[in-house]
Amino acid sequence: MKKHQTSAPLPLTDTLSPGLPLDQIGRTLASFYDNLVTEGVPEHLAALVRRVRQTEDDASARHEPPVVTLEAEPPRLALVVEDDPEIRALAETLLEETELNVVGCDSAEAALSVLQARGGDVALVFADVRLAGQMDGLQLARAVATLWPRARLVITSGHGLPRPDLPAEAVFIAKPWRPFDVLVEAERAAAESAPPVI
Fold first, then answer.
1. What is the DSSP letter of 154?
2. Is there a contact between 144 and 115 (Cβ–Cβ < 8 Å)?
3. How far apart are CA 65 and CA 153, in angstroms?
4. Phi, psi torsion values for 171, nearest 5 degrees
5. How far apart are CA 122 and CA 105, in angstroms?
6. Segment holding 173, helix H or strand E
7. Starting at the edge strand that comes first in sequence, how are the strands of the sheet with 122-128 ordered?
8. 47/26 Cα distance (integer angstroms)
């Protein structure tokens, strides 16, 4: 009867592919580690996987890329242009309930100064027809429609104008306006995306 011969176990290096670094084997095992654990992994392989993972975690902690913080977008504005201080204050208080920052002006000229400085941030221009200064709200509306077409235009008047001669994009709300109507227009303005920076 022929005896079955048992051979001595080969050294570890004989069973590995020539030139394959041990840490690469460990990384490969680490990628399958979770599945292998459920099937039962010899402790010496599990220890190797843990050591490779710890080394990789330490290396990534030392070589973390810098955290890039995006600059916050400037807040979008609602411009209230009204020469009556009480009505202007009422509109400003109302619009402060929206996500827009509010800037009040008593004249078209003051509003144009704000628009020249921050026109890309202005989402809403809410203006009366009659204003202090040389320009009226209709002239302001035409300037805004031409130069800052992304701003939502809402023109108001209490002087019996059914719909004054306004740019087609403008919305007209007769005085006394309802807060709800103003808020609806403000929400529409806030929902529109800011123009791209060119």
1. E
2. yes
3. 45
4. -105, 135
5. 13
6. strand 171-174
7. 101-105, 77-81, 122-128, 152-157, 171-174
8. 10
Separation of alpha carbons 108 and 121, rounded Å = 17
Query: Residue 146 burial by CB count (10 A; 0-12/13-18/19+): exposed, middle or buried?
Result: exposed
For the chain, the maximum distance between any two Cα atoms, rounded to a whole number of angstroms, is 121
* DSSP-derived secondary structure for 16-30: SPTT--HHHHHHHHH
Mean pLDDT of the chain: 78
- Convert the pLDDT of each residue in 5-14 to its tens digit: 555 554 444 4
List, run by run, the mean pLDDT of 10-residue segments along the chain (198 residues). Answer: 49 51 61 54 62 63 55 81 96 95 96 94 95 93 94 89 76 92 94 59
Q: Which pLDDT belongs to residue 184?
A: 95
What pLDDT is recorded for position 147?
95
- How buried is 14 (Cβ within 10 angstroms: 0-12 exposed, 13-18 middle, 19+ buried)? exposed
80 has which bridge partners? Answer: 104, 126
What's the whole-model pTM score? Answer: 0.61
Collapsing DSSP to helix, strand or coil, 181 comes out as: helix
In whole angstroms, what is the distance from residue 7 CA to residue 69 CA? 62
Indicate the SS3 state at residue 186.
Answer: helix
